[in-house]
Write a structure and sequence with these properties.
heterodimer, A: 121 residues, alpha/beta, five-stranded parallel sheet, 21% strand, globular, B: 394 residues, alpha+beta, 12 helices
């Protein structure tokens, strides 16, 4: 069975690109969410195998809050995809022990390597 | 008689502030030289006169005495002298104004039992105790005043009092304005850091958006040549992002090792072109130099273009060889960037201005227009790109 990835990204063009990249890598996309509420709703319905989470998203929750809930409520592993390179945000994100951390702009090779490491071939 | 003669000597010395020798004094008095010498000794011992030796001559002056209390009152600092029982024995006017108490209310009072602003601070009392043990101490003190903190730099100096007993002189300098200026500077710096992080975040977000658009276009293109161009563009965007991510975190590349930056950049280019380190053996040699961020960014972009060009043209079809990157020079002598490879030879007439190769045109434009330097290509000993540019180029 093809593993499913939830894409949490508030920019629709970037979300579309990540969706294509995930599918190119041989996985399915469970859904795309622009906000924390929508991400949790999709996660509850589709139970993805992994979430790719942008830290800055729409709504009152940021990606770090959402990622924590995805793991606590549904046991879903997550990888942060972020343009934040500053130490403070990195430290806060690392404190909740993500399964991966990718810097924007994403390199296809880094994304594929991360997906394979967490989801398998 | 003796008193009168001493008074006359003092009168003569008073008229001549540049000093007089014993002979010059004797000439003005009808007493003998030995007696003058004896009276001068008496004046020296009692501290009323001073003597300095100029060459072989001994010159005598009246002592220049200013009361210590007058000096203390002239000072803009707060000065207080305590004896070893923590009793205030001297305090200057400035301190009295600050304490809003009269001299009589403070003099003779024991610190710790009496409420005197600043002196009742535990840190100040600790400073007094340390100084009484013979140690000179300097500490910074914050004092709450009308809801605002006042700041002082306090020095506690062990002092021998007139009685021969130990005491302490405390000098408190009001540093409130300096401290507030520092705080305001720190706050402005913090705001600048936040702004800088926000700008970096937006640069990377926008580069991701452009990268996504190019990547989506790649997926919609069947033409092989067009795809290659889009891949090249994609690599250029990723390298640009790499340079900004690495350099954006340090204002001056002198703060982070240049060689590490270029090594990571070359690794990133190798990764994009799927080149292994076994195929192209790379050595990076960077002198102990510091490049302004603008120059470092430009050099990073040039390295990206020329290393990418070398991979595409000298190391294609499985060719193996060496790649060497050397950066040397300095702010005064100017900088020199050399990228040399031992792969397939470039055409001898390769000219960045006329070749029509976009990567070479970009590197040449950055080298000449942004760095104010020159770019040359040589092919007699491997393929060599040589870029020279002046220090501090804008």
């Amino acid at each position: 069975m093809i593993k499913k990835v939830l894409v949490i990204e508030d920019n629709t063009i970037i979300a579309l690109d990540i969706e294509r990249r995930v599918k190119m890598s041989g996985y399915d996309v469970a859904g795309k969410a622009e906000s924390g509420a929508s991400a949790l709703d999709i996660a509850e319905k589709t139970r993805p195998d992994l979430a790719l989470v942008d830290i800055r998203i729409k709504g009152p929750m940021d990606g770090i809050d959402v990622a924590k809930q995805l793991r606590d409520r549904f046991g879903i592993p997550f990888v942060f995809i972020t343009a934040y390179s500053d130490r403070g945000v990195q430290d806060r994100a690392m404190a909740i022990r993500p399964d991966g951390y990718l810097l924007k702009p994403i390199k296809q090779s880094d994304l594929v390597e991360t997906l394979k490491r967490i989801l398998g071939e | 008689m003796e008193g009168e003669e001493i008074a006359r000597i003092k009168e003569i010395l008073k008229r001549e502030p540049r000093g007089l020798s014993i002979r010059q004094i004797t000439d003005q008095l009808d007493i003998n030289r030995n007696l003058v010498a004896k009276y001068l000794d008496m004046l020296l011992v009692s501290g009323q006169a001073e003597m300095r030796t100029i060459g072989v001559a001994k010159m005598y002056y009246l002592s220049q005495r200013v009361p210590i209390s007058a000096l203390m009152d002239f000072s803009s600092d707060f000065i207080v002298v305590l004896d070893e029982d923590f009793k205030v024995i001297q305090i200057n006017d400035n301190f009295l104004r600050f304490s809003k108490k009269s001299r009589e209310k403070i003099l003779g009072k024991t610190i710790g039992r009496e409420t005197v602003p600043l002196l009742e601070s535990a840190a100040v009392q600790e400073g007094f105790s340390e100084a009484l043990r013979g140690k000179e101490v300097a500490i910074d003190i914050e004092w709450p005043e009308n809801g605002n903190g006042l700041y002082f730099r306090a020095k506690f100096i062990p002092t021998v009092l007139e009685t021969g007993r130990m005491g302490v002189t405390a000098i408190l300098e009001d540093t409130t304005e300096i401290k507030r200026a520092e705080q305001s500077l720190r706050s402005a710096l913090a705001e600048k850091e936040i702004l800088l992080r926000e700008i970096n975040q937006r640069i990377n977000d926008n580069l991701q958006l452009v990268s996504s658009l190019v990547h989506l276009q790649m997926g919609a293109t069947n033409d092989e040549r067009a795809r290659d161009v889009l891949v090249e563009t994609q690599n250029r965007i990723l390298s640009l992002a790499f340079v900004y991510q690495h350099l954006g975190q340090s204002r001056n590349l002198g703060e982070s090792p240049l060689s590490e930056f270029f090594k990571s950049l070359v690794d990133s280019i190798f990764q994009a072109y799927r080149v292994s380190e076994e195929t192209i053996r790379t050595t990076i040699s960077v002198a102990d130099i510091s490049l302004p961020i603008h120059n470092a960014t430009a050099v990073g972009l040039i390295v990206n273009e020329l290393v990418s060009f070398s991979i595409r043209n000298s190391f294609n079809e499985g060719t193996r060889g060496d790649l060497q990157i050397v950066i040397s020079g300095g702010e005064k002598s100017g900088y020199r960037l050399m990228i040399r490879n031992t792969g397939k030879k470039f055409p001898a007439d390769l000219d960045p201005k006329t070749s029509g190769v976009l990567g070479l045109q970009i590197a040449h434009t950055i080298a000449t227009s942004e760095l104010g330097g020159q770019m040359r290509i040589m092919t007699d000993d491997g393929n060599i790109f040589l870029i020279t540019f002046p220090g501090g180029a804008e």
